[in-house]
C-alpha cells in the first residue's frame, strides 16, 4: 500500500469521527486531538475506523504514535510492512 | 382512545418541531416503536410511543412547533373499533412521501426557497434531508449541524434549566479523591487483550461504578416531585456528552446496574455517536434518574455540577492525575481522580450522599466485579 493510500485511509477515518474536519486544511504535523478537540471516545472510534479500513489493530500503548497525520502514516506504513 | 402526547425531552427542552411521521393512520404500533421525528435545539429526536394499538388520527402536521405535552395523535387501544370518533377536518392522512428520505416539511421549505433537493445533503436521521438542511442549502452555506442559531438556542435552554435548578434545589456538594492506580492497571491489561472494537474507556468504569452505587444507595437515584422524592424505576444513568459545534446533552443509559461492563461500554459508544449525529430517542432524554459529567478530558481536576431537574443528584468526575499518595505508610506516585456528588438536600442529607460517594469508590476499586 502506498503512502498516499494510507494517507487517504487516515483522513477518511478521521473525518468519519469528526465530519467538520476539512481534509484540505489538515496540517500534517499538528496533533489532531488538540486541534480538533477530540475526546477519548473520538480517539477510540478513530482507531476502530483505521482497523476497519486497513486491518491494523493499534494497541492502546501505540495511540500516542497516531497523534499527527504524518506520525500516523509513518506508524501505519511500518505496521503494514511487517 | 389513547392520547399520544409529545413526551418530555428533559428539563431544558420545552418544544420540538415535528419533522415527519414514520407511521400513518391505520398502522399498528407497539409500545417503544419510533413513530415520529422531532427537531430540537439538540438535534433530531426519535419519538417513541408509550402504548400499543392502532394509530387513529394524527393531530399535528410536519413543520409545526409542538410544546411538550401536546396531543400528537390518537391511538385506538387493541380491540377498540375504528371510527369511534368522527374524523376531524384537516387531519386527513398525509399522502405517502415519494422520497422517504426527505421530510414533507423539508420539501415544502425547498419549494418556498427554490432549492433543488437533489443538491441538498441530508444530516437528519439516516441521512434524511431536514428543514435545516434545506435552509442551509438556500443560504449557500455548507456547514454541518450545530449552526450558531442552534448553539444559541441550546445555550439559552441549558441556562434556563440550570437557573431553575439553582433557584429551586438546595444543593449539597461532597467530594473525595480516589486512588485508581489498581483500576487503571486492570483496565490497561484488559484492553491489551481485547480487540480494538471491544476496548473500554475509563469513562465506562465511572458510569458503571455510579450505577452500582445507585443500587446500594437508592436515595440519590430518582426524581423530586410535588409529592417529594420518587425513587427511579431503574438505574438510568444520564451521561453528559459535549456536542460538536457546542452545547451538551445528557441522554440516559438504561439499567446500568444490571448490565455487564461490556454492554455498558458498547451502549455508551452508541449513545455518544447518536447524540453527536442527532439521533437520540425520546426515552433517552426523559428517563435519566441521575447524571454523570466527566470533565477530566478538558484538564479539569474536579467538577461540582448543577443538578438536572427533576433528578436529585449529579456526579462530577475530574481528570486522572499522578500525585504523591500515602500507601501503607509510604509515599508513592499514584493515579488519583476527584469524584464529586451534588445532591438535592430535600431528598438526601450529607450522610446519604457521603455513603453514595463511598460506594462509588468501592466499586471503582474493584473493577473486576463491575
Oligomeric assembly? heterodimer
Poorly predicted residue ranges of chain B: 86-100, 142-146
Most extensive interface, residues per chain? Answer: A-B, 16 and 19 residues
Indicate the percent of residues in helices of chain A: 55-70%
- Work out the helicity level of chain B: 25-40%
- Structural shape of chain A: globular
Largest sheet features of chain B:
7 strands, mixed
Summed over residues and divided by their number, the pLDDT of chain A gives a mean of 91
* Number of DSSP E strands of chain B: 20
Helix-strand sequence of chain B? EEEEEEEEHHHEHHEEEEEEHEHEEEEH
Mean pLDDT of chain B: 87
How many strands in all of chain A? 0
Q: Layout of SSEs?
A:
The complex is a heterodimer of chains A (82) and B (370).
Chain A: H1 3-17, H2 32-35, H3 40-54, H4 69-81
Helix pairs in contact in A: 1-3, 1-4
Chain B: E1 2-5, E2 15-21, E3 28-29, E4 34-40, E5 43-48, E6 53-58, E7 65-67, E8 71-76, H1 104-113, H2 131-138, H3 148-168, E9 171-179, H4 181-193, H5 202-216, E10 222-225, E11 228-231, E12 237-239, E13 241-242, E14 248-249, E15 252-253, H6 261-277, E16 280-281, H7 282-286, E17 290-294, E18 313-317, E19 321-327, E20 330-344, H8 350-364
Parallel strand pairs in B: 5-16, 12-17, 17-18
Antiparallel strand pairs in B: 1-8, 2-4, 2-7, 3-6, 4-5, 6-8, 9-20, 10-11, 12-15, 13-14, 18-20, 19-20
Helix pairs in contact in B: 1-2, 5-6, 5-8
Amino acid at each position: 500500500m502506498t503512502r498516499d493510500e494510507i494517507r487517504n485511509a487516515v483522513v477518511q477515518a478521521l473525518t468519519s469521527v469528526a465530519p467538520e474536519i476539512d481534509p484540505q486544511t489538515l496540517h500534517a504535523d499538528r496533533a489532531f486531538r488538540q486541534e480538533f478537540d477530540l475526546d477519548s471516545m473520538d480517539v477510540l472510534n478513530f482507531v476502530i475506523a483505521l482497523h476497519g479500513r486497513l486491518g491494523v489493530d493499534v494497541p492502546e500503548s501505540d495511540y500516542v504514535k497516531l497523534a499527527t497525520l504524518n506520525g500516523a502514516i509513518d506508524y501505519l506504513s511500518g505496521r503494514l510492512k511487517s | 382512545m389513547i392520547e399520544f402526547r409529545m413526551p418530555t425531552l428533559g428539563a431544558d427542552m420545552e418544544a420540538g418541531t415535528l419533522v415527519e411521521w414514520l407511521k400513518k393512520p391505520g398502522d399498528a404500533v407497539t409500545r417503544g416503536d419510533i413513530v415520529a421525528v422531532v427537531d430540537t435545539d439538540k438535534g433530531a429526536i426519535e419519538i417513541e410511543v408509550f402504548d400499543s394499538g392502532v394509530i387513529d388520527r394524527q393531530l399535528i402536521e410536519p413543520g409545526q412547533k409542538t410544546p411538550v405535552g401536546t396531543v400528537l395523535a390518537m391511538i385506538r387501544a387493541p380491540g377498540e373499533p375504528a371510527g369511534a370518533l368522527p374524523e376531524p377536518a384537516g387531519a386527513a392522512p398525509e399522502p405517502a412521501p415519494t422520497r422517504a428520505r426527505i421530510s414533507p416539511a423539508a420539501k415544502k421549505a425547498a419549494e418556498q426557497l427554490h432549492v433543488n433537493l437533489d443538491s441538498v445533503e441530508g444530516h437528519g436521521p439516516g441521512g434524511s434531508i431536514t428543514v435545516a438542511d434545506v435552509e442551509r442549502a438556500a443560504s449557500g452555506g455548507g456547514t454541518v449541524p450545530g449552526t450558531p442559531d442552534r448553539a444559541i438556542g441550546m445555550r439559552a435552554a441549558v441556562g434556563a434549566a440550570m437557573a431553575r435548578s439553582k433557584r429551586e434545589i438546595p444543593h449539597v456538594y461532597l467530594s473525595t479523591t480516589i486512588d485508581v492506580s489498581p483500576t487503571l492497571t486492570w483496565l490497561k491489561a484488559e484492553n491489551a487483550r481485547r480487540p480494538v472494537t471491544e476496548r473500554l474507556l475509563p469513562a465506562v468504569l465511572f458510569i458503571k461504578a455510579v450505577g452500582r452505587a445507585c443500587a446500594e444507595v437508592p436515595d440519590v437515584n430518582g426524581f423530586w416531585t410535588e409529592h417529594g422524592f420518587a425513587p427511579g424505576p431503574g438505574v438510568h444513568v444520564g451521561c453528559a456528552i459535549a456536542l460538536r459545534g457546542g452545547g451538551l446533552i445528557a441522554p440516559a443509559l438504561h439499567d446500568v446496574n444490571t448490565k455487564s461492563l461490556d454492554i455498558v461500554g458498547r451502549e455508551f459508544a452508541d449513545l455518544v455517536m447518536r447524540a453527536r449525529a442527532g439521533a437520540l430517542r425520546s426515552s433517552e432524554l426523559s428517563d435519566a434518574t441521575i447524571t454523570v459529567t466527566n470533565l477530566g478530558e478538558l484538564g479539569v481536576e474536579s467538577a461540582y455540577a448543577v443538578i438536572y431537574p427533576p433528578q436529585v443528584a449529579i456526579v462530577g468526575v475530574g481528570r486522572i492525575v499522578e500525585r504523591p499518595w500515602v500507601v501503607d505508610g509510604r509515599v508513592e506516585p499514584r493515579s488519583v481522580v476527584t469524584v464529586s456528588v451534588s445532591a438535592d438536600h430535600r431528598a438526601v442529607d450529607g450522610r446519604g450522599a457521603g455513603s453514595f460517594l463511598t460506594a462509588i469508590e468501592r466499586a471503582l476499586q474493584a473493577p473486576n466485579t463491575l
